[in-house]
Amino acid sequence: MERFTVHTGTIAPLRRSGVDTDQIIPSEYLKRVSRRGFADGLFATWRNDPGFVLDRAEHADSTILVAGPDFGVGSSREHAVWALQDRGFRVVVSPRFGDIFASNAAGCGLLTLTLDQVVVEALWLLAEADPSADVTIDLVAGRLIAPGAGLDHPLDVDPYLRWRLLEGLDDIDLTLRHLEMITSYEAARAPLMPSTIPS
Amino acid sequence: MPRTLADKIWESHVVRSAAGEPDLLYVDLHLLHEVTSPQAFEGLRLAGRQVRRLDLTLATEDHNTPTRSIGQLIADPVSRTQVETLRRNCADFGVRLYPLGDVDQGIVHVVGPQLGLTQPGMIIVCGDSHTSTHGAFGALAFGIGTSEVEHVLATQTLPQRRVRSMSITVDGLLQPGTTAKDLVLTIAARIGVGGAQGHVIEYRGSAIEALSMEGRMTLCNMSIELGARAGMIAPDRTTYEYLQGRQHAPSGADWDAALAGWDRLRSDVDAVFDTEIAIVGRAVEPYVTWGTNPGQGVPLSATVPDPGDVADPLARAAAERALLYMDLEPGTRMRDIAVDTVFLGSCTNGRLEDLRAAADVLRGRSIAAGLRMLVVPGSARVRLEAEEEGLDKIFRDAGAEWRHAGCSMCLGMNEDRLEPGQRSASTSNRNFEGRQGPGSRTHLVSPPVAAATAVLGRLAAPTDVEV
């Protein structure tokens, strides 16, 4: 997993709430068996609308997506995270995320920042007034700094996730460090649990 | 300290706990399907890893599979490749697979319970958000992403942060003709699609105890539409009667021993939940959605709401956008909304009881002229059982299409889709924009409402056709 330490980029302001993962990437794009190459599916339906924010030239290089509450609700499709990353996003900001989407993002190194709606509003206004305004997400110091909006805001990131992102550590490798504990759990596990392989 | 049912299951599955870190939980059953697993198997290959517990892993084909005919190759080459990739992965790694054509093939959340693999007290995961279905048995069951699928394949564990608890107590029995689907749509309208975010829900109360296992599965299935991590119901006699005699359920002395353990699986009387919600069961009416998320619903007897009445500006904007997408005017009676297609099926409402409830309405009747009705059993076994009861004949005689098992029009990954602008009454779980095909418009309904709607061609309850 790619490390995440300090990132400076511009914002794509997505003024919508309840952005479900079917909107982030429609099911038609889930038939692929690869892990990359999903950028063309990102918000595929909404991109048919002329003037959709992600298609505007001034937001073409944005790396921080700022959306309304309940971003990533619905389906567990990790393709939603892959599509955002393939398009170049490193950070998504929302007042509330779907749980599975947030877990998937954490596993892939896409930083999700849960911030109050007032902060989201300030970031939307900033990006709409000045699409080239830089915003810095400093995971080392735990701050979001948007000079154009006069913001220097603390980040509320789970300390363990923060450490994992800073180090770029893979979950499976971390778990396998405790292999002997898994083995001993299995040895003591209730014997009546079902098996998928009929005896 | 008093503990909830979720606490008890969680604590019995902790492999490792360390201050400041997520708990490492053991997974008792890992279900796989073709859509969210290929990249996970590829990850195993790249790292030279094996599947740790083949005996706790099971795969089936459901999302892409055709329902019209299962005899020939899947027509869409991309869908075919995905299904063939699952077959190759299962063969290479030794995972048990129920492929298309097998009597145990079907939607993953219908297959697990019907095999008796879903049992109380287990932790069950699957790369599918509707894994919450299995919570109906008093299991802690939740959907995961593909990276987590790979993690479980490799380690049979998952690191998880403790989540908050929510109780939803439904006292007062549901009225006849009102189902678990109406109940969950009522809850969704009340708390919204993010209302239970970060929580595990335990459903309790007299209305829940009176639900069949099928009804409980419908309710727990849609916990994810409330934003919950999982939904669950303490096991009781109804649970045990469903399980006894199933292929993978314990038998003989093992059954008695298992039962003794399951009887302890309930929240302590004085357990405290982080959030508590109460619903009056007898006040629940047949419920339908008007918008583009499952929380945008009203009673069937009501009218399309006016976004102008919504105070929160973001919710108001969402409602305006939803009405535009759905091509609906505020004030329209829900009963006046005509549909092109009725879809009966999905992991929410594709079980035998659901088909029976719809068949009861359709018996001796015909669907409206020009309307299309797809009946898609949740599993190949549900299809067989329905045919043994003659339900297929009732559906066919009414003019509906009797299909093979799969996810089908719930999400339109196979060829079962709506055309742009078409409108459905659907027993599935999501009415998101484009969910049933680009430009599709979905009204979520219960099986009896789906059947009555098929007869009249507009949203309707069974009582509307009984004249």
Summarize the structure in words.
- The complex is a heterodimer of chains A (199) and B (467).
- Chain A has 199 residues and is α/β, with parallel strands linked by helices.
- Chain A has helices at residues 21-24, 79-86, 99-108, 117-129, 159-167, 171-176, 179-188, and strands spanning 6-9, 11-14, 64-67, 91-94, 111-114, 135-138, 143-146, 151-154.
- In chain A, the strands form 2 sheets. A 4-stranded antiparallel sheet of chain A has the order 1-6-7-8, with helices on one face. Chain A has a 4-stranded parallel sheet with strand order 2-3-4-5, with helices on both faces.
- Chain A is globular.
- Chain A starts with 5 loop residues before the first strand and ends in an 11-residue tail after the last helix.
- The model of chain A has no long low-confidence stretch (mean pLDDT 96).
- Chain B contains 17 helices and 19 strands.
- Chain B is globular, with a radius of gyration of 21 Å.
- Chain B has a 5-stranded parallel sheet with strand order 5-4-3-6-7, sandwiched between helices.
- With 467 residues, chain B is α/β, with parallel strands linked by helices.
- Chain B is 33% helix and 16% strand.
- The termini of chain B are far apart.
- Chain B has helices at residues 5-11, 38-47, 77-93, 108-115, 146-155, 180-191, 206-209, 213-221, 237-243, 253-262, 313-326, 346-349, 352-362, 380-388, 391-398, 447-456, 462-465; strands at residues 14-16, 23-26, 29-32, 57-60, 96-98, 123-126, 140-143, 157-160, 164-171, 199-204, 230-232, 275-280, 287-289, 297-299, 341-344, 372-375, 401-402, 423-426, 441-444.
- In chain B, α2 packs across α5 and α6 (180-191) runs parallel beside α8.
- At the A-B interface, α3, α6 and α7 of A face α2, α3, α5, α10 and α11 of B.
